[in-house]
Amino acid sequence: MKAHGSAHKYGDNVDTDVIIPARYLNTSDEKELASHCMCDIDEDFTKKVKQGDIMVAEQNFGCGSSREHAPIAIKASGIDCVIAKSFARIFYRNAINIGLAILECEEAAERIDNQDEIEIDFDQGIIYNHTKNESYQAQPFPDFIKKIIAQGGLLKSIAKGDQ
Amino acid sequence: MGMTMTQKILAAHAGLSEVKAGQLIDAKLDLVLGNDITSPVAIKEFDKHGFQGVFDEHKIAMVMDHFAPNKDIKAAQQCKTCRSFARRFTIEHYYDVGEMGIEHALLPEKGLVAAGECIIGADSHTCTYGALGAFSTGVGSSDMAAGMASGSCWFKVPSAIRFELHNQLSAGVSGKDVILHIIGKIGVDGALYQSMEFGGEGLASLSMDDRLTIANMAIEAGAKNGIFEVDDITIAYMKDRVNRPYQIYTPDMNAYDTVIDIDLSAIRPTVAFPHLPENTKTIDEINEKIMIDQVVIGSCTNGRISDMQIAADILKEKKVAKDVRVIIIPATQSIYKECIKRGYIDTFIDAGCIVSTPTCGPCLGGYMGILAENERCVATTNRNFVGRMGHTTSEIYLASPAVAAYSALAGYIDGPKGEM
Ligand code: SF4
Prior knowledge:
The complex is a heterodimer.
Chain A: E1 2-9, H1 16-19, H2 30-34, H3 45-48, E2 54-57, H4 69-76, E3 81-84, H5 89-98, E4 101-104, H6 106-111, E5 117-121, E6 126-129, E7 134-137, H7 143-150, H8 154-159
Parallel strand pairs in A: 1-2, 2-3, 3-4
Antiparallel strand pairs in A: 1-5, 5-6, 6-7
Chain B: H1 5-14, E1 24-28, E2 31-35, H2 38-48, E3 60-63, H3 73-88, E4 93-95, H4 103-109, E5 118-121, E6 135-138, H5 141-150, E7 152-156, E8 160-166, H6 175-186, E9 195-199, H7 208-216, E10 225-228, H8 232-238, E11 258-263, E12 270-272, E13 280-282, E14 294-297, H9 299-302, H10 305-315, E15 325-328, H11 333-341, H12 344-351, E16 354-355, E17 376-379, E18 395-398, H13 401-410
Parallel strand pairs in B: 2-3, 2-5, 3-4, 5-6, 8-9, 8-11, 9-10, 14-15, 14-17, 15-16, 17-18
Antiparallel strand pairs in B: 1-7, 12-13
The complex binds iron/sulfur cluster.
Iron/sulfur cluster (SF4) binds near residues 66, 102 and 123 of chain B.
């Protein structure tokens, strides 16, 4: 599994209220959620983002409400992976459960700038920055979580009776 | 090394004699909760994966509270999705308009949560039930769907910070000030992935409502859960509410990574400035007049009867400032009724406030008090993120019901300064 695209860079404590404001939570339609993604801190995000792009942020990404609409909106907007120094725990679970790849990597979060060209090798946990000609090693997933992702998300793994 | 309260509850629910921080476990659930926003996503997933039944129709709670009474057609559709799911599987604890209240006030009140239980909810403030000595944590909709189908959930066992409480709160200071003080101290990621466990001799002076408020905001410090040691106050609260056996777990004191001492008597009324709950100042540190447009007293943090009482005592026979809109929302039907009985509703209306039926409403910028550009609000809610209550340039100041009520009278941020 690989990802390759441009970086969209944000700061500390990006909360789920800015990822998808509550006023749009009267729907669970992915496309509609994606059309409002990040609008409160980055009005142009939905115009700039391309399929396969990467989101990069600093500490405590996804803090706040438990809304699964947040990783759903990010994924449906075209983002293939979120890299951050750390994630809020409910966001972390939700992303795994719906199959949005997320990587914790301090160095990558610090070094990557907006619009850098990034490629990720998930098997190795390596993040390549083609713009800066650098690479960073991310925390690989524990096996248990790899299994959930490999089975196509939490519900598929339970439906199969593997839990 | 021993185990924390959280670890003991998780071990018991995973059928293990011992667990360690970092270990991945699968634990049996005593209750799975969802609301009108998160349940529709869970139901969609539940149906998409072809589950034919729920693990136990008595151990699922669904509460229509966020955008209910329905704020618009889309919200109405979402409640309808929940309602028909609840009927299809005869979900016992489905609460709709007329019976509902804000979920985290309603569930403890109805005795649906108890000491020693293992609870997940598709709502981040599910951590509230730790006030009763339960392990209780917020999850997403997929976890809710999986929990409803299987009755279990995967967890990474957390380590913990112990908060050792000493002495007693001063007059005019309440649970909200305690938790804002703590978040101001450790930051919004100060307890990331960890449990916040509360105990010590100071516990005896904290009411159940204070504890519920404190546990409610554990998530605002990034914690997985907040949990209180069970004492006579907890047992008295559960009596007449909880009609099933429950289990009391006490922590091994050597199990904690960090112990933080909190002198309750030194805590002052505290306000969190925009746009993070960690931006705190005590009322004595606010030297300018911060003019406000709105006050909201309610939410799962501070919409309980003692909060209403504090507000009513301050507002009695007074008038709120001319340019301030004051919205009061008792969190459940029984709190609402009690407010009527005690005459608080008269007090509020005579003072120039409005009183709403139970709903989350403005807390998450849903309806019933949305802020316009550059407006300021003092709210007893739990989050002051950008755009949380309306326009992205609006500002939310988080505070206790006492500070909110004093501010309503003054027209600027004010509090019980003299009451030491
Ligand atoms: S009152 Fe606010 S914080 Fe509490 S459950 Fe409702 S929206 Fe969430």
